[in-house]
Design a protein that fits this description.
Length: 221
C-alpha cells in the first residue's frame, strides 16, 4: 500500500507525464491530484491534504514562490519540492526561506524526484547540485533562515520578504520589467514595491539602493 500522497503542480503536460511515470514506478508514493496553476494548487492542497507537493515556479495565476508561502501559512507539515528550469539565486533564496524540502532542476535525472521525496519523508532536504552550489557559495544558513545578519541596517529589516527580493534585484541592476518577469508579477506591482523600498530606506535613486546593498554586503546573496 502506498503511503505518501503527492500533488503535482505544473502547466506542461510533457513534464506531468514524466512525473507520472516515475511516481507510478514507486511503491511508496501515489499521485492524488494534478493542478495546472497556482490558485488550483492551493485549493487542491486544502481539499486533498497531501503529504508532498511537486511544483514548478513559473505558472499561471500565481508563481511557485507565492504558492509555497500561502500553503505554508495553513499547512506547515506538507513537504514542498520545487521542480523547475530556474536556478537563479533569487528563487533559491526565496524558496528556501519559505520552507521547501527540495529543489530539483528539470534538466536533471527524473530519478532524483524519488530521492527528494524519500528525503522529505524523513524531514530531510534534497537539492540539485547547481542549487547546492548557490547555497554553499552565495548564502549563509543564518541569512536564509533569518533574512539577514544581526548587524544589518535596521531599516532593511523593515522590508517585507517580497520587498527584499525586489530590492536585491534592483541593486543587481535589473529593470522593473525584468524583475516582473523573474518574479512572475506585474510591472506595476514592482514599481509599487520600488516606491515603498525607497521610502523605507530614505533614498531617491536605484544607485543609492546599490550602495546600501554593497555596504551591507548583501550582493553576495
Amino acid at each position: 500500500m502506498k503511503s505518501g500522497k503527492v500533488v503535482l503542480v505544473d502547466d506542461h503536460e510533457v513534464v506531468l507525464e514524466g512525473l507520472r511515470k516515475i511516481l507510478e514506478s514507486s511503491e511508496d508514493f501515489e499521485i492524488v491530484g494534478i493542478a495546472k496553476d497556482g490558485s488550483e494548487a492551493i485549493s487542491m492542497v486544502k481539499t486533498l491534504k497531501p503529504d508532498f507537493i511537486i511544483m514548478d515556479i513559473s505558472m499561471p495565476e500565481m508563481n511557485g514562490i507565492d504558492v509555497t508561502r500561502v500553503i505554508k501559512e495553513f499547512d506547515q507539515d506538507v513537504k514542498i519540492i520545487i521542480f523547475s528550469m530556474h536556478v537563479e539565486r533569487i528563487y533559491v533564496t526565496a524558496l528556501v526561506r519559505a520552507g521547501i524540502s527540495g529543489y530539483l532542476l528539470k534538466s536533471g535525472p527524473l530519478s532524483d524526484i524519488l530521492l527528494a521525496l524519500k528525503a522529505a519523508a524523513v524531514n530531510g532536504t534534497f537539492y540539485s547540485a547547481e542549487v547546492m552550489t548557490i547555497l554553499q557559495k552565495r548564502l549563509t544558513d543564518f541569512e536564509i533562515l533569518n533574512g539577514g545578519s544581526n548587524n544589518q541596517n535596521p531599516e532593511i529589516t523593515r522590508l517585507s520578504q517580497r520587498e527584499r527580493e525586489v530590492f536585491m534585484l534592483l541593486a543587481d541592476g535589473l529593470r522593473p520589467k525584468e524583475i516582473a518577469e523573474k518574479l512572475c508579477i506585474s510591472q506595476k506591482t514592482v514599481e509599487t514595491h520600488k516606491y515603498n523600498i525607497m521610502q523605507k530606506l530614505a533614498v531617491k535613486s536605484v544607485a543609492n539602493l546599490t550602495k546600501i546593498a554593497i555596504k551591507e554586503d548583501l550582493l553576495k546573496l
